[in-house]
Amino acid sequence: MIFQRLCHFFYWLTLWKCGLFTAFAQEESKGKGYKIGIAPSHVTTSQNPFLCNTSEWPLVAKQIDFYKYYGAQLKNSSRFSPINPKVLVSFAKKEKINLGCEYGDFHLSQNMTERVVQSAFKQLDPVFQNGGKVDSLHLDGPIRRMLKGVHDHPDALSLPEISRFLVNFWKKIKSKYPNLRMGLITNLPNWDYTKELHGWN
Fold first, then answer.
1. Per-residue model confidence as pLDDT tens digits over 145-169
2. 44: which DSSP letter?
3. What pTM did the predictor assign?
């Protein structure tokens, strides 16, 4: 895994040094239906200084169409690196880019639908309350985290139940933020659907 990441790093570094990354980014973001975004880790140091001073990373800052934050970063939890919503909004307006939010609080519990919806609002509201907007909501692992058979939890759901759950979730979120787009993160290589092939599927 480390070797693969190093290969990817040197691949992109070579493209950048040759001037091909800039051309690629500009071409992809012009009318082809592609968006270029970044999503720095939510478990490292705070990104507030990084967002306040884009002069330290001008090449990337000028090429991206959106910045994705992890909703949990607005929860004031010691587990995640915090982001100040005012700083986030100011950054998005200054750089004229969209904001995306990754949301993954699909943990099994009773009264799950309402809890999950309210948790999502807590991770979206601070941006809107500070004069900004979130363009897209990226759902991280709702199927993997709630699927009966993968989990022995009494509140685990079947695939049809998860589908209905997500439709209901979508409707409630859209009722408050009608222009918010939503999508499912398909990070399949990192998801485990069978205990026999842990780490492979």
1. 888 888 889 999 998 999 999 999 9
2. S
3. 0.76
